Each structure stands twice: as structure tokens, then as C-alpha cells.
# Entry
Amino acid sequence: MKIIVTGSLGNISKPLATELVQQGHAVTVISSQPDRQPAIEALGATAAIGSLDDADFLAATFAGADAVYTMVPPSYGELDSRAYFQRIGRNYAQAIQQAGVGRVVQLSSWGAHRDHGTGGILGSHDVEEILAAVPGLALTHLRPTSFLTNYYGFVGMIKGAGFLGANCAGNYRVALVHPRDIAAAATEELTKPATAGRIIRYVASDERTQDEVAHALGAAIGRPDLRWVAFSDEQMRENLLKNGLPPSTAADVVDIYASMNSGALAEDYEQHKPALGKVKLEDFAKEFAAAFQSDSQR
# Structure
């Protein structure tokens, strides 16, 4: 199969492209960074260098593809995250129709079933709806849960304050996912027979409370007393603003954790739970410890 992978060499796209190449597929990886071309080619894939804001480039790259994996990469310079997702989603839809692509696997998010109250996840909801409007498309929305790798963002808090936390209760049980398990699910979806229509697939690796996460990460980094601290929404917002996040981005993050804490984020996931993936919290804790120690040595 000829398969197009967006997301350059990110935490999902790199293992996805690697596995697809190993299975014998002809893989093209889209990246906006020319310096990524040698690394992409080293995987055995073809590099297509260009911008997701260029629908004609996307259409030319998609031409002749049997399947396309689409994702919207983070863009922290965007003042309106939802508008950014909508823009890229429309570019994908235009390119898919121009190129006549019949099979798409879209990286979405849990909580994308809601059209309000989930902050930064609202963009994923919008992209789902944009792609679902493409006629005749065999479309899978991959909805991963909360990324384990998000906890890398708490390294500074752990070192500076001695704890980690957000506006979410410590005893709240969170569905967590590792990028490798998302890549494995995407590989399955891209390569299996598909018929026109829209399906949703949740992806999760483990389910643990935030208190359990703090305990596991603390044990791995030699801080067995590490604990999770629940903030109010306002405390969370103030902390994010103090750390330099734009007000709109801070509001998006606060809303995500608030919807997690209320159960709104997970309400559809709870009705359609998948089999859990291979990577567990304790596996990730080892990766976290290595990154934590590496950061400490800088």
C-alpha cells in the first residue's frame, strides 16, 4: 500500500512510519522542516517537505495514496487554537477530495464527542466533523485518551515546588495512553480493509488515579513522597499565566482539566472502552525518570 503519514517524526508518527515501512508499505512522511528529510529517509520512507497550510501541496502529496494518516500538530503561536484546527482540517478535506483519497485515519482525542466545554479539544471535534463531511470517505477517528507524555510538562513543577498537580482531583481515575500504543492502533486501521463510513476507535494504555501517577513517577525518580496537588480552576489559570502562556491557551488547558475532573471528557469513552494497550504507567515511569535525570544534568 501507498500510505501518507503526517506529523513528521513526532512521538506517534515516527513509530507509525517505522512499522509501516517494516511491513513493506510505501510510506511518505510529511514534514514542514527540511532538516528532517535525512532522518525520514533513514527510516526507509519518502520525505515530502511542505506546509499543512498549503492544500495544493497536500493534494499533490496525497495523489495515488491508498490511505492517509492525518493529525494537527501543536502550534503554540496560534492565538485561536480552535480556528487553527479548523483551518488545517479544511485543508485536509480539500486535499483528500482533490486527490481522490478513499481511506483516512484521523488523530482526534477523547472528549471530541462534545462541542463545548473541553477547551483545546474542541478543535479535534471540529476536524472530525469537517472530515466526516467528505463524501464516500472511509474514515476512522482515533480518539486517544490523556497522553502519558503530558507528564513531562510537570518536570519544572516537581523540581521547583516538590509536587505535581492541576485542577483535577488526585483520586480521579484517568485513562492514560502512550504514543506507541496510538501508533500501533493507527497501523492496524490504515492497513486493514475498510468500507466507506465513519467509525470511532478509542485508544488507551492504562487507567490510574492522579495520586497513583504521582506515586509511580516519584518512585521512579527517587522521590517516594511525591504527591499530586489539586488546584482550583482559578489557581491553575494563574499558574499558567505566570509561566507565560497566553490567556487563550491557559483557558484551553484549564477547561481540559476541568472537563476531566467533572467526568465530561470521558463520558463517551466510558461507554465505548477499548482493550488497553501494552504500555503501562510503570513502563512510562522508567522513561520519565530517564528524561528527568537528563534534564537535571543540563
The chain is about 45% helix and 20% strand. The first strand starts at residue 2 and ends at 5. The mean pLDDT is 96. Residues 206-296 form a domain with the UDP-galactose 4-epimerase; domain 1 fold (CATH 3.90.25.10).
